[in-house]
Amino acid sequence: MIETATTSATYDQIAADYAARWASAELLAPARSRFAARLAPGACVLDVGCGPGWDTLRLYGMGLRVSGLDRSRGMLAQAQQRGDLPLILADMRRLPVRDAALDGIWACASFLHIPKRAGLDVLCEFRRALRPGGVLYIGVKRGTSERWVEHTSGMRRFFAFYQEAEFDQLLVSAGFAICEGWIGDDTLGREPWINRLALQLDKEATMETEITREGLLMALDRERAALLELLPRFSDEQWHSAARADGWTVHDIIMHLADANYGLALIVLGEIPPPLKLDEASGWMQGLDEYNDQRRQKNAALPRDKAMSRTSNAFEHAKRAIESVDDLAAPGAYGPIHTKGQWLKRIVQHTRIHRRDVEQML
Hints:
Elements: H1 2-21, H2 29-37, E1 44-48, H3 54-60, E2 65-70, H4 73-79, E3 87-89, E4 102-108, H5 116-129, E5 130-141, E6 146-150, E7 156-160, H6 164-173, E8 176-184, E9 193-200, H7 203-209, H8 213-230, H9 236-241, H10 250-269, E10 278-279, E11 284-285, H11 288-299, H12 304-324, E12 331-332, E13 335-339, H13 340-359
């Protein structure tokens, strides 16, 4: 995802200055106290987007068993200076933890770098990692739309801005119950902060995250029907001209979706190996963004009817995989870190994300 990759590269370069700027910032002390008050001493917490580790350190000082996670190597290098705290190089879109492993997630000023098209899926990933009743603190900027913002270094970061009602609905849709909310000022006089404390819903969230053959088939059929109804609404000109903020056109996205879903299905079936090595930090494929861009260039000249044919074929193979796999709880191609059911669920989630991308281009 170009937005998160570019933003992470920017943080790699500005990490030292960023760490120094926020070393003494204590505006978040009340938020940390509210968060910790809902957790038992020694609760297992993940600081998602920990940056230079200041919140990780302070949450640890409040008696929590906290680990820091960030995609930026530069930021983690700064966080290492906070002491002997567990630190993880990984992407918040794919948390390297088992289901219901965490008592709390602290996501301060990090989720706001996720494009809105992927926001719901990231929050669902947070919910998956939290135990039923687990606590989420999340802070985003209040505003409208999403855009690139230039840093004083000349490099860019991507920000998604939310209205309160919009953000609250997103949390609820992801299976959270909001228990506290407030607006905070920005120390530099910029957009104010939306702060939310939310609980992972118990029965409803557990039921929704359970992976069943019937549930996967129903979800796949629903996404397939919605996508195939949507695509004919684009003219041939729009097919190659309508684009996301990162320049990917409708054609690029549909070809990527077809290739990825076809590949995932065959990997689960054991008919082909994964094309990339496992990234131990993220728990998913190493160099996936670069690989996807290479495939995009290779598929650029394919005609529209070929793209549609590949899309239909990929759905058929995905359906075959869901129907054929004997044990959805069996380890996937990378071992027990992802079950076969979780690999198949990625096909449905992947389709949903890119269908939304395409919908926004009309």
